[in-house]
Amino acid sequence: MAGKASATPATYSPSPTGHRKKRPPTLTDSDWIRPDGRTVHQCRPAFLRTGAVNSASGSAYAEFGNTKVIVSVFGPRESKKAMMYSDTGRLNCNVSYTNFATPNRSQAPEPKDLSSMLHKALEGAIILKSFPKTTVDVFALVLESGGSDLPVITTCASLALADAGIMLYDMVASVSVSCYGKNLLIDPVSEEESYQDGSLLITCMPSRNEVTQMTVTGDWSTPKIHEAMQLCLDACSKLGKIMRTSLKESASCPHD
Amino acid sequence: MEYVNPEGLRLDGRRPMEMRQLRGEIGVVSKADGSAVFEMGNTKVIAAVYGPREVQNRSQQLNDQALVRCEYSMANFSTGDRMRKPKGDRRSTEISLVIRQTMEASILTHLMPRSQIDIFVQVLQADGGTRSACINAATLALADAGIPMRDLVTSCSAGYLNGTPLLDLNYVEDSAGGADVTVGILPKLDKVTLLQMDAKLQMDTFENVMQLAIEGCKAVASYIREILLDNTKQLEFRRGV
Amino acid sequence: MIFSKVKGVLADEVLDLPTQCPSSRTPPPPSPVTVQPPASSPLDFEVRLGIAGKVVKRYSFLIGDPLMVGLSFGEKNFIKGGIAHDLRTDGRKRLTYRPIFVETGVIPQASGSARVKMGATDVIASVKAELGKPNPSHPDKGKVSIYVDCSPTAEPTFEGRGGEELSTELSSALQRCLLGGKSGAGAGIDLSSLSIVEGKVCWDLYIDGLVVSSDGNVLDALGAAIKAALSNTAIPKVQVAANASSDEQPEVDVSDEEFLQFDTSGVGRHYIVDATTEEESQMSSAISVSINRQGRICGLTKRGGAGLDPSVILDMISVGKHVSEQLINKLDSEIAAAEACDEDNEMDS
C-alpha cells in the first residue's frame, strides 16, 4: 500500500468522509523521521533500468520507493502526413496512469497536464535539429503512484530517450521538494504531498547546470525558494550520476 | 403560461412586433482581418474573419472558388447554468453548418479561387436567437474584412405564441415550445437564404410569421448598413479625406 | 456588390484592397537605426530576454511553437536589437507593461466578471458560484475550479481541438498560482470563506477564462481579469436553518439582499516583460512568476523549452517582484475605476 505503511496501519478503504487524517505535528528538528523512515533531506532509493519494453526504440523502468513508472520511446519516425513540414523534429509526450496506480481510482491527476509538463521538461534537452521531419513519441505509464510522480516520470523518460539513442544535450534529472511549515521535504511521498503547504519542482541538465522546467505552488519567500532550489539542484546532480551509472551498466552488458 | 399579457406586452415588456435593442461594433479583435460584436438584447456574439488566405488543408482546396469555413462555439459562461460541453457537439456542428451555408450564399466565392475564408463565431451571452445574432455578426465581420459579397445577409427570428406572432424571441419565449422561424435574407436582392422552423404552424399563420421575420431582417439590415457607413466615415475622417 | 474595405484603426491603412494577403499584415520592415550587426550564421544568434541586458540563452529558433509567427530574418533581428537597446518595437522599455484596460460586470449572468485588454490581447473572465458538496478531505473548505478556453476568434489554429493544448497549459498555470499548496496554504482565494456548513454544503466557484484575442502575454491578462472578476464577485449571503434531523441536508436559504464581498490577496504576475506575439516567438524561454501583495511568491511556471541557468531564474524572480509591485498598484486603480464606472451605469439605468 502506497506510502502510508509505517506511520498508520495500512487500510485499503479510502479515507471515510467526515473523518480527517490529522496532519502530523510540524517539527523544526531537521532529523525528524518521515513516514518511510527518511530524514528531511534524504531521497528515496532510486532504482533505474533501461530496456523494459522490447518493441520500443528505447525504454526505461524507474522505481522510487512506491512510485513505479515505465517509459517507452518510439522513433524518430516519420511525422503524420497531416503535420506540416518542419525542419526540426517533433516531440510527442503522453502520460497515463493504470487503473490501479492510485488507491482511489478517481484520484489520478490530470494526465493531459502532466503530458504537457513532461513535454516542456524534455524539449529543451533534445537536439531536435538532428531529426527533421520526424517525431519522437514518449509514452509514460505510471504503474503505481507513490508521490513525486512527475519528477520520476521525467527522469525515467530522459533515461529512455538516452536508451533510444536520441541526441540529447544532456540527460535531465528532476526532483521536487515539499514545503511543510518551516521544513523542506525532499522527494515527498503521496501522503506528504497531500499535506504540503507548497511545492517546488526542478528539472535540470546537471552537467550543463541549466534548468529546463520549474514550477512552484504555494506561498514562498525568496530566500526559501533559493534554499529549495539549491537542495533540488544538488539532488538532481546526484540523481544524474545514478542515471549515468545505470546507462553505463546496460551498455557494458547488453541484454539479449 | 401567458407570453403576451392583455395589454399586449411580452414578458420583457416589448410589443409583439418589437425587436430587442441592437448594438454592433466593428473591429474588436485587432489581429483578425475582420471582426465584429453583435448584440441583440442580452444575446452577445463575437465574430472574427480570417482570410482570404492560402488553403490550410490542400485536399480541401477548390480550384474554381474560395473555401468558406465556419466554427461556432459557446463560452462556458454564456448560459444561465454553467455548462462544460466538449467542443464540436451536435448542436454547434449544426449551427456552424447553417452559418457557413448562409454566408457562402452571399460571398462572391468565384472571385477568390484556391483560397480559404474562416469565420469564427463565439457566443458570449446566449438569450435566444444566437443563430440570427451569429449571422449578423458574421456579416459585419466579413464586410470589415473587405470580402466581396452580393449583399449583406441579415437574419432574424420570429415565433408564434398565444395566438400572436412575436418578433425576435428571447430564451424564455424560445423554450416555450411554440414555433420558432429563423429567416436569413439578402435584403437588397429580396432573396431568402436561410429558413428554419421547428414545431408546426398553419400554412397561413406561417406566412404571417415569416413575413414578420423578414421585416425584422430588413430592420437589422438597415442598422448594419448604418454601422458600416459610420465606420467608413470614421476611417475617412482619420485619413483626413 | 459590396467592396467596402473598412478595416482597422491605423490612419494609413490601405483602404482599397478588396482581398488582403495575410503576409501584408506583418509589421513594417525594420528601420536601420537599432539593428544589431547580423549574426555570423543564421542558425546561431543570440536571443536577449529583457532582463538587465543579460544574455540569457544562446539558441536558434523556438521549436514547435503553436503561435509561430511568420517573421523574416530582418524582423527577427529588429526585435532582438530593440530589446538589446531597451527600446522595443512598440516603443516600450524592457520592463514596461502595455496599458491595461479593465471593464467589470460584462457578463450579467455570472456572479462576477471582467474583461481585460492589454494592447491587442483581449480576455474575459467570469466567476460563477454554485452550491455544492465539499471535498471529504477538506470539509471546511469550498472548491474552486479554473478553466480557460481559447476561442478560435483569437487565432485560427485554435479551431476545433487546436486550442486545447494551450487551454490546459493556461488553466494549470493559473491553478498553480491561485489555489496554493495542497493544504490550501498560500492560496489567492480564501477557501474557508466559501464553506457554508462544514462537510455538507459549500460554494463551488467556477472561474472561466475566455481568450477572445491574443497578442502575447495571455497568461497575465487572464490573471488580471480573474483578479478583477473576483473583486467584482458578490456571493449571496446564506442563512442556514439547522433544525432538520442530522441525516437530512440542512436547509440553505439563499438571500439576495446581503452580499459577501470577495477579495483575493492580490495576485499580480510578471511574465518576462509583457511580450507581444512577435516577441514571444523569439523567446527561447520565459518564466511566469505570481507575486502577492506581501511580496511573496505564490506560483511559478517556466514556459518554453530551452534550459536556463539557476542564477538567471533567481534574477528573473527578483525582476518580476519589482515589476509586479507597480503592476498590482496599477491594476488596483484600474479595477477601482472600472467598478466605479459600473456602479454609475447601474445608477443611470
Notable traits:
heterotrimer; A: 256 residues; alpha+beta; Ribosomal Protein S5, domain 2; four-stranded antiparallel β-sheet; 4 helices; 25% helix; 29% strand; C: 349 residues; three-stranded antiparallel β-sheet; 13 strands; globular; disordered N terminus; PNPase/RNase_PH_dom_sf (chain A); ExoRNase_PH_dom1 (chain A); Exosome complex component MTR3 (chain A)
Plain-language structure description:
The complex is a heterotrimer of chains A (256), B (241) and C (349). By secondary structure, chain A is of the alpha+beta class. In chain A, helix 1 crosses helix 2. Chain A is built from four helices and nine strands, in the order ββββαβαββαββα. The two termini of chain A are 34 Å apart. Chain A is 25% helix and 29% strand. Chain A has one domain: 2-Layer Sandwich (Ribosomal Protein S5, domain 2). Chain A is globular and about 55 Å long. With 241 residues, chain B is α+β, with helices and mostly antiparallel strands. Chain B has a single domain, classed as Ribosomal Protein S5, domain 2. Helices cover 30% and strands 29% of the residues of chain B. Chain C is of the alpha+beta class and 349 residues long. Chain C has a single domain, classed as GHMP Kinase, N-terminal domain (Ribosomal Protein S5, domain 2, 2-Layer Sandwich). Helix content of chain C is 25%, strand content 26%. In chain C, the strands form four sheets. In chain C, strands 3, 4, 5, 6, 7 and 8 form a six-stranded mixed beta sheet that branches. In chain C, strands 11-12-13 form a three-stranded antiparallel beta sheet. A two-stranded antiparallel ribbon of chain C has the order 1-2. In chain C, strand 4 and strand 5 form a beta hairpin. In chain C, helix 3 packs across helix 5. At the B-C interface, strand 3, strand 5 and helix 4 of B face strand 5 and strand 8 of C. Strand 9 of chain A pairs antiparallel with strand 13 of chain C. Chain A: One of its GO terms (cellular component) is nucleolus. Chain A: Keywords: Cytoplasm, Exosome, Nucleus, RNA-binding, rRNA processing.
Q: Could you say which overall geometry of chain B the principal axes of the C-alpha atoms support?
A: globular
**Would you identify the CATH architecture of chain B?**
2-Layer Sandwich
The percent range for strand residues of chain B is 25-35%
Integer average pLDDT of chain B: 91
